[in-house]
């Protein structure tokens, strides 16, 4: 039996380290964290909308007196499901990598809200974005990026507790960072780790992401808070590293044969990973891998929204039901048919 239950809300990891977990870990259901020592606090990420973030802050403050005043917020990367609640952490220092700052406007919440509200106007991409993101409310969100940046590593004292910020991007995103609490053997990975689901490589290089997984497995760590999914261990990091390596190895000969990334996605045998949640994300990862293999002097910059049409078709080809199907059955929302 797993040490930690995969249940919504705050989990006390011990010694002033906390995780805030959002099942089922699929599109938009992300995790966050809090580190406390005395009156000092450091929060790791916010959630995908203001309502969810406010609920998380209320939960923290009901149990942890120091959480009434969050001193520092660190964003592991720029994706909205880790940053769209930043404006609610008023008065905090907000820290991230320069890559996170540069990447911050890639998903504008006003644009996302417009697409999910008027999905048909945006074709298949809009319909799938609505399917992925309809549980969330993007109204009222003001992009609030980090105001302080770091490169390499940065050590912060939270009371008497040392916390190390480690820049590891670009990998999943342009500006990935790990938040490591060495004395407590706890690490918060952001989307460097998707446990129980399928990762998505928006940027790459994918080999760098594989190398970061190897680095985490070599660290003195016992408890890992993934960006998505349950509280994790090094076994989960190894499993995801193996997925990235498997897809990389399968993609290379298809690139050498001259296929485009989308044709290659339908050729790759996902094997043991076919039944993973969100397996359609392999489409994006293959495009990133093909960019890696091409090794162009200037890496292409690709808009994320068109991928959603391709992922919708690929998900249908896998015979999958709608994203968040169980959630929407519970709340009574009706999905569009494929």
Automatic annotation (TrEMBL):
Gene3D superfamilies recorded: Ribonuclease Z/Hydroxyacylglutathione hydrolase-like (3.60.15.10)
Residues in Metallo-beta-lactamase domain copies: 29-228
Signal peptide (from-to): none
GO biological process: antibiotic catabolic process
Domain of life: Bacteria
InterPro entries noted in UniProt: Metallo-B-lactamas, NDM-1-like, RibonucZ/Hydroxyglut_hydro
Matching PANTHER family: ACYL-COENZYME A THIOESTERASE MBLAC2, METALLO-BETA-LACTAMASE DOMAIN-CONTAINING
Assigned protein family: Belongs to the metallo-beta-lactamase superfamily. Class-B beta-lactamase family.
Name of the protein in question: MBL fold metallo-hydrolase
Upper classification of the organism: Bacteria, Pseudomonadati, Pseudomonadota, Alphaproteobacteria, Hyphomicrobiales
């Amino acid at each position: 039996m797993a040490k930690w239950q995969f249940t919504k809300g705050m989990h006390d990891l011990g010694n002033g380290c906390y995780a805030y977990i959002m099942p089922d870990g699929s599109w938009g259901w992300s995790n966050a964290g809090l580190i406390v020592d005395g009156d000092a606090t450091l929060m790791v990420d916010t959630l995908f909308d203001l309502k969810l973030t406010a609920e998380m802050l209320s939960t923290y403050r009901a149990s942890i007196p120091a959480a009434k005043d969050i001193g520092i917020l660190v964003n592991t990367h720029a994706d909205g499901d880790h940053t769209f609640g930043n404006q609610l952490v008023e008065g905090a220092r907000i820290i991230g990598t320069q890559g996170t700052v540069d990447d911050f406007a890639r998903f504008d919440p006003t644009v996302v809200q417009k697409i999910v509200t008027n999905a048909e106007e945006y074709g298949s991409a809009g319909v799938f974005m609505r399917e992925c993101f309809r549980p969330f409310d993007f109204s009222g969100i003001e992009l609030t990026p980090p105001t302080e940046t770091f490169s390499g590593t940065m050590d912060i004292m939270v009371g008497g507790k040392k916390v190390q910020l480690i820049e590891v991007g670009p990998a999943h995103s342009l500006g990935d960072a790990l938040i490591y609490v060495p004395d407590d053997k706890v690490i918060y990975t952001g989307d460097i780790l998707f446990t129980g689901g399928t990762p998505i490589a928006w940027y790459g290089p994918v080999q760098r992401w594989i190398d970061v997984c190897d680095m985490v497995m070599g660290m003195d760590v016992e408890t890992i808070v993934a960006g998505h999914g349950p509280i994790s261990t090094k076994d989960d990091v190894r499993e995801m590293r193996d997925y990235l390596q498997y897809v990389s190895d399968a993609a290379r000969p298809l690139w050498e044969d001259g296929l485009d990334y989308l044709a290659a996605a339908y050729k790759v045998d996902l094997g043991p990973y076919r039944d993973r949640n969100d397996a359609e994300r392999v489409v994006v990862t293959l495009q990133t891998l093909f960019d890696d293999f091409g090794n162009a002097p200037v890496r292409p910059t690709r808009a994320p929204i068109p991928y959603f049409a391709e992922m919708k078709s690929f998900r249908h080809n896998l015979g999958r039901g709608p994203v968040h199907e169980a959630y929407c059955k519970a709340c009574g929302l009706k999905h569009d048919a494929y």
